[in-house]
């Protein structure tokens, strides 16, 4: 039997593929390469270029590779883009996921791990959010993910189909062995952009919003190392295979850093100032978003190992340097 990883040529999906292969799993990756990078996919994984919303193609993959579990990353993730082009997000995230889920049900796939987001919480009224916090997304990206969570809940009640949704906070960092990292040229992640600026590949780092109700006026986020996030996926998959019930879990460390604090950390690592440019807030950005991940730690025994922010920043910078060297060969 094998695991299907949709979006497996992307940032988190490629890390997931390596983690599964490292522990002896058979993996097939499905990615349309619209933002993913083919070279990031492990040579030990089977690869199919295609759309996760193409139900006929997904059913063939499940049949041909004996897929019994799916980890679903494929989709669009840029909040401002979702505000300007909501139909793209409802098609590529919600509708494609609905087709994928139906293909799984028809082919008897019973285990499904879903890449959700903290954006489902919108602008929380509390300093940190738990899974019981209200889900009131303020942008189409968050809504598209929440709709998929609802589809999964309904399908799991109607069929022999179990799922776990993992609500990510801000993912950063890169594989310790240098095999993969954030590689999309359109990436908007703060630490990725800061790395590009630090290496001289961008002229400056934009600070979107300096008037948030936070200590230094910039947005605060909970940054989680991609390796710890992938570890949560492995635990979720194992739990489903062991007969655990469906669930949703926050993936974050429980403390946040402002944009200016991240800039300061990058400056510590590089030993030089980072050029910045202040700009207006972006549509759909909350002021503060921090995880209460007690449920993940208690229910799935998740134990993060890369929580230090300087470790996260340094690994992202190291990957950016290595990736640029690879691109220039």
What does this protein structure show overall?
The protein is α/β, with parallel strands linked by helices and 329 residues long. It has two domains: 2-172 and 223-251, 3-Layer(aba) Sandwich (Rossmann fold), CATH 3.40.50.720; 190-221 and 254-328, UDP-galactose 4-epimerase, domain 1. 40% of the residues lie in helices and 18% in strands. Strands 3-2-1-4-5-6-11 form a seven-stranded parallel sheet, with helices on both faces. The longest helix is centred in the first third of the chain and has 22 residues, at 86-107. The radius of gyration is 19 Å and the shape is globular. The mean pLDDT is 95.
Q: How many beta-strand segments? A: 14
How much of the sequence lies in strands comes to: 15-25%
Largest pleated sheet: 7 strands, parallel
| CATH level-4 homologous superfamily of the largest domain | NAD(P)-binding Rossmann-like Domain
Give the name of the CATH architecture of the largest domain.
Answer: 3-Layer(aba) Sandwich
Radius of gyration: 19 Å
Number of helices: 10
How do the strands of the widest beta sheet line up side by side? Answer: 3-2-1-4-5-6-11
CATH third-tier fold name of the largest domain:
Rossmann fold
The secondary-structure class comes to: alpha/beta
CATH class of the largest domain: Alpha Beta
Task: Give the % helix.
Answer: 40-55%
Oligomeric composition of the shown chains: single chain
Distance between the termini: 38 Å
Low-pLDDT regions: none
